[in-house]
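[recover] target loaded
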């Protein structure tokens, strides 16, 4: 009875169920299968599943006949709604299969066509089939053919005929879809003109009037997004309100029309920044979600739109409840949709942004980790040619910078720099100068402090200079960028000076290493020379970033520790130095062996420090920092407990007048907060 639609098992099951109810009534005369509340619900679910109902005659027949029979079997005052639904559906069936509709209704349709050239019906039907094919497959040729068929049907239909409004609306819908694919505003203007005429032509009480208004509202909002014309937004909002007002709450289209109205209200808020429009938009979009049935293929779209509105309101007012609802809604979409669903990427992308926004308010490491997971999944869901690929790279890069600043994991910093560089390369200059170059410059500056490589510092300065060029002179961020740039330039000069000083000290300690000295039973000179040579080499590494220099520094300080007797007063300090160098090498290479060795050296330094020695609190703090670093790598609760023990010991050991005491206490509080989050 129709063009073959995409196979949908649920639609087929519901259609078969309604047809079975009709047969049971015809065969037995039992009204119950037709009048049951479940029958109404099944018909509603079925219409909600159909992307383009006009092309699926089997669905139109099943739903239309169910409501036709209900209208005849129910008392007149109860069956009016069923009749209102049945007649336009069976009218469309009659266009394709005149013999399929009840005889008295077919006579009514035929009498309406007496003396009329009905060739327009064939053109209209062919246009509907082509439009359905275009919507289902994306075939531009089918869409172009639909426009031609609808145009011919409009030429043939008499000026006052009842079908004219429907043809005008269908032509407007086809032209709107053509605009959405090609972006030609003249085509959109034509779509709006035809949709306006459809609304004007349709009788005020016509059942399809709400559909015509909804189609017009959508097209006006399309044009507003392209032109930012206040007139289009105002008219689109008014038309969407009318469409909702004419739609019954149990109509399958009710949720979609509510969602369209909610979208229009969000556009009004974004234009005028009126909180009332945002509040109403949230309310309307929540009603759209509540009105949709689980099988509605657009339900996830309604949830996505609601999440966006809640995120907007949460950001504006700092309302954690709205932010939590938005994140929960996006997480439900990601959980429920298949991997190839068109909403998966935008849901992941928005989830990444919302989680980072909440992290910036709560400082929750769980939110930051989840944000990074969502950002990585979002990148995995699209190809590099996707128009939002670079923007998504930038968002993920910023989140990784946040985590590096929190946990000091150099792997996060490396990944952030790679992503931000890629985004800066892909985005146009106007978009990348401040949005991408600013965090890229900060990340490169942080990396230059780890690597000590002047080339990294030069790259940071270049990125900051480009970022500064994209920030308006009166923007508050310009002063901060200028300050960062000045610090980077000073650091560049210090590198040159420090390298000369480090080279001089290294030469001095190398000569001392080769000079025989008399033994000192308490602290031989040889371990001191080895220790100081290692620290000088470490200074050169911090300037040059040369990994080989760091390797030599580690070996010299390790040799100094081995050459220092177990009871020597300076053994604890040299163990602490070794722990610092091993941590630095771990941050450079990511090797867990160095991190484990750093933990061991720091613990030995604590054990070797007398209880009243002022160095004890520094060694405890060092142990706490390195255990924290290990816990961020392993995510092990045991490591977290050891980190807390060391942080607590450092806070207790600090003297009341120790200027570092607040930092030790803050470290303990952060560690305890982390354990609370995890447990």
């Amino acid at each position: 009875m129709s063009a073959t639609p995409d196979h949908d098992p649920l639609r087929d099951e519901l259609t078969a169920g309604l047809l079975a109810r009709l047969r049971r009534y015809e065969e037995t005369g039992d009204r119950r299968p037709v009048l049951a509340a479940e029958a109404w619900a099944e018909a509603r679910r079925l219409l909600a599943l159909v992307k383009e109902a006009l092309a699926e005659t089997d669905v139109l027949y099943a739903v239309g006949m169910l409501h036709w029979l209900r209208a005849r079997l129910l008392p007149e005052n109860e069956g009016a709604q069923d009749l209102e639904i049945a007649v336009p559906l069976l009218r469309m069936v009659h266009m394709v299969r005149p013999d399929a509709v009840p005889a008295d209704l077919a006579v009514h349709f035929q009498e309406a066509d007496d003396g009329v050239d009905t060739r327009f019906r064939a053109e209209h039907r062919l246009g509907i089939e082509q439009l359905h094919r275009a919507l289902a497959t994306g075939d531009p040729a089918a869409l172009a053919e639909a426009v031609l068929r609808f145009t011919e049907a409009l030429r043939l239909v008499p000026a006052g005929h009842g079908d004219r409004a429907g043809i005008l609306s269908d032509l407007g819908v086809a032209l709107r879809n053509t605009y959405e694919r090609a972006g030609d505003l003249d085509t959109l203007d034509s779509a709006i003109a035809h949709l306006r005429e459809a609304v004007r032509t349709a009788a005020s009480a016509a059942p399809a009037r709400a559909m015509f208004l909804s189609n017009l509202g959508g097209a006006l909002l399309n044009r507003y997004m392209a032109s930012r014309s206040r007139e289009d937004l105002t008219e689109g909002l008014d038309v969407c309100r009318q469409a909702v007002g004419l739609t019954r709450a149990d109509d399958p289209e009710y949720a979609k029309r509510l969602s369209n109205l909610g979208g229009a209200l969000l556009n009004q808020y974004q234009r005028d920044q009126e909180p009332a429009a945002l509040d109403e938009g949230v309310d309307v979009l929540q009603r759209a979600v509540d009105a949709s049935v689980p099988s509605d293929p657009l339900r996830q779209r309604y949830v996505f739109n609601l999440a966006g509105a809640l995120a907007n309101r949460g950001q504006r007012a700092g309302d954690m409840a709205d932010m939590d609802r938005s994140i929960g809604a996006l997480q439900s979409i990601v959980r429920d949709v298949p991997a190839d669903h068109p909403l998966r990427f935008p849901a992941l992308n928005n989830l990444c942004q919302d989680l980072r926004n909440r992290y910036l308010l709560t400082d929750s490491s769980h939110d930051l980790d989840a944000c990074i997971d969502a950002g990585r999944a979002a990148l995995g869901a699209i190809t590099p040619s996707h128009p939002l690929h670079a923007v998504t790279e930038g968002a993920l890069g910023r989140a990784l910078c946040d985590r590096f600043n929190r946990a000091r994991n150099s792997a996060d910093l490396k990944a952030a720099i790679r992503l931000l560089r890629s985004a800066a390369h892909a985005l146009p200059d106007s978009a990348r100068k401040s949005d991408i170059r600013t965090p890229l410059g900060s990340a490169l500056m942080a990396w230059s402090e780890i690597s000590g490589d002047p080339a990294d510092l030069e790259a940071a300065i270049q990125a900051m200079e480009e970022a500064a060029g994209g920030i308006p002179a009166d923007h508050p961020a310009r002063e901060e960028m200028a300050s960062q740039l000045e610090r980077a330039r000073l650091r560049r000069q210090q590198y040159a000076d420090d390298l000369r000083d480090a080279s001089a000290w290294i030469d001095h300690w190398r000569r001392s290493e080769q000079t025989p000295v008399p033994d000192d039973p308490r602290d031989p000179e040889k371990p001191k020379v080895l220790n100081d040579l290692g620290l000088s080499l470490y200074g050169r590494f911090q300037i040059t970033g040369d990994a080989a220099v760091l390797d030599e520094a580690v070996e010299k300080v390790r040799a100094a520790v081995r050459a220092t007797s177990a009871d020597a007063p300076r053994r604890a300090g040299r163990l602490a130095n070794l722990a610092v160098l091993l941590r630095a090498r771990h941050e450079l290479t990511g090797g867990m062996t160095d991190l484990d060795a750093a933990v061991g050296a720091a613990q030995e330094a604590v054990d070797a420090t007398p209880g009243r020695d002022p160095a004890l609190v520094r060694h405890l703090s060092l142990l706490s920092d390195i255990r924290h670093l290990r816990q961020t790598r392993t995510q092990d609760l045991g490591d977290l407990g050891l980190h807390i023990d060391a942080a607590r010991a450092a806070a207790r050991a600090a003297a009341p007048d120790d200027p570092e005491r607040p930092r030790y206490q803050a470290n303990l509080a952060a560690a305890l907060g982390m354990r609370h989050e995890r447990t």
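[recover] notes: Residues 1-114 form one domain.
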